[in-house]
Fold these 4 entries.
Entry 1:
Amino acid sequence: METTFVRKDYTSTITPPPTPTNDKGPSNKVKVNVLLFLRRYIDRWEYLQLNTPLELWDALKGRFVNIHDTFLPELTVQWNEICLLDYKRVNDFNKDMLRLKTRLNFCGKKLTEDDMIRKTLSTFPTSALILTNQYRLARI
C-alpha cells in the first residue's frame, strides 16, 4: 500500500509536515481520493466515521502494527513441522518451503538458503544420513 501512496503522491496526506511552512498541504480533492482509496477494502463501520486521511491511517496502523507478532508463532510451528516425507512431490515441498520463507521474512525472521537446506536434510529418514553427512562434509 505504501508504494501506491508514493506512486500516486499521497504521502503528504498521511504524514504531518516536518516543519511549518507556507505550503497549505494537499488539496481537498487529493484528501478525498486518499480516503476513498483507504476505504475501498474496509468493511468496518468504526473507520468510516474518520474524516481525514491521517486519522484513518493512524487508526489502521494502530490496529495492524502488531500483525507480525500474531503470525510468527503459527509460522514457526509450521516451519518446525514441515517434512519432506509428508509430500508426494519435491516441488510441492519446495513450494511450501518458499512460502514459509517469504512469510517468515515478512515477520522479520530472515531465513537463508543454508537454513532451508539444513531443514530439508533434517527431514530425511535416518537411512539417508549418509547423504546428509556427505553434504555437510562438502560444505566445510
Entry 2:
Amino acid sequence: MKEVWRLPEVSSLNGMDKEWVLKLLDGRSELERMRILMTLWRIWHVRNEIVHDKPTPPVESSRSFLCRYVESLATIKYCLGADDVKGKHPVAEQLEGCLQPRKTKPVIVDAASSWSKPVADTVKLNVDGSFSEATGSGGAGMVLRDDTGAVIVSACRYIPSCSSPLEAELVACREGVALARQWSNKSCTMEVDSREAVKMINSLEMDRSSLAFTVQDIKDLLKLDPRFQAVAIDRFNNQASHLLANLGRSKA
C-alpha cells in the first residue's frame, strides 16, 4: 500500500503499548487516519481468510479494493458538488483534487428537494449506477423503503463489464426492480437520477440503441406489476444508492 499511500513505517510501532492504535493515529490528518484504519482492517480480513483455510487474497487485489473503497468514501464526503459526468466521478484522475475539503462556497441542499417518504401503503425504490471509464466496469446501488422511511432492503452489485454511465444506470434499474419485487408486493415508485434512463424505460416505442436488451428486460419486469413506475429525480435525493453504487464498483 505504501506504493500508493503515505503510511507510517512499520518500525514506528516498536515499543508501543496497548494503546498503539490511538498513538499511531494521533496528530495525523483525517485522510491519513482513514487510510491507516482501512489498511489495518484489510490486514485483519486477510488474516481471517488464512485462519479459516480460505485462499489468500492477492496483494494487488487488496490494494485495488482499498484504493477504490477509500476513493468512494472521499468522493461522497468532499466532492458532492464537483463537476462530473451525470454524477459519476471519474476514478483516479480527478480524486486528488477532492481529498481535501474544497475552499469554495459550500453546496446547500434545499430541504424541499431532499428525499421524501412514499405515500401511505406504498414503497419507494432508489437506484443508482456508478461507472469507471478506466476499468470499463461499474456498480449498482439500490435502497427499498416503506412509507415510514424505514429501509426494507438495500444492496449493491458489481458490474464487471460496463460501457457508459447510462448502462450502469439501466443495469441498476433492472437489478433494483427485481429486488423490489422479491421484497414487497406493494405499489412501488422507482426513483432514478438519470432522466435519459427514465425516458428509455417509460417510452412506448421499441428501443433500438445498443442498450435495447437491458431496457427490454426492465420493461418486461415492469409489465408484471402495472403499479410500478419510474420517475426522474435530482442526484441530491439519491445519495444512499449513490454510495452503494460506488461500493459495488469497488468490489472488483
Entry 3:
Amino acid sequence: MACKQRLLQMNELDEMRRESYESSRIYKERLKLFHDKTIVQKTFEPHQKVLLYCSHLHMFPGKLRSRWTGSFVVKVVYSYGVVEIENPENQKSFKVNGQRLKPFLENFDRQESSEELVDPLYQDVPSG
C-alpha cells in the first residue's frame, strides 16, 4: 500500500515538473515575441551618412555629453548587420555592428515659431 502511494506521489511530482517546464517555455516564447516587436530594423545604404555610438563614454557620465560621434559615410553593408563605414576626414574605414549606428539627419530644418507673450490679467476672486 505504501509503495503504491509513494509511486503515485512520484508521478504527481513528475507531472508538476513537466507542467512548470511547459509554462516556462510558453512564457519565454511570449517574452521573445514581445521583445522582437520592439526592435526596430535599421537599413543602411552605401554613401549614407551615419553617426556612431561611443560606448566608452559611459565611464565619464555627463548629462550634456553626446555619446554619438560622426558623421561617417557607409561604404559597404554586409550580411548579419555588419556595416563598413569610412571617416571622411582621414579616409580610414572600419567595420562596426549596425546596431551602433543611426542615420545622420543632414538637412534638418527646425521650424521656429514665435508667439507674442502677454501679461495675464488678474481678477479679484470674490470671497465667500
Entry 4:
Amino acid sequence: AAIHLSERHLLSLQDILDCCGFLEWTWYQVMKLWRETGDVVNQPRAARGCVCHLDHEDIDYLLQLVHDNPDYFLDELVHLTQTNHLISVHFTTIFNELDRAGMSHKKLKCIASE
C-alpha cells in the first residue's frame, strides 16, 4: 500500500517512512525489490547442495534400528549406517528420511513403551 501511495504521489516519502517506521535505506531496498520482482518479500533461495535420499533398503534398516532401540540419537544412527551399511550421510538426511517414513516423537514413545 505504501508503494502505491508513493507512486501516485499521495503521500510524501517522509510521511510514508514515519507511518511505516522504515529507514530511508530500507525503503529504497524495498522499492528496488519491487521493481525487480514485483514483490516486496525476498523469495527463499533453494537449498544448497543436493537433497539426499536413502534407498529403500537403507530406510528399512534405519526403521529397524529405531524400532529395536528408539533411544538412539541421530549421530548414533549416522555411525551405525556408516559402519554396517557403508553409507555416509548427514544426520539431517536421516532425520528427514525418518520423518518422511512417518516416524514421529509420539510413535517413538509408543515403541519405547512396548
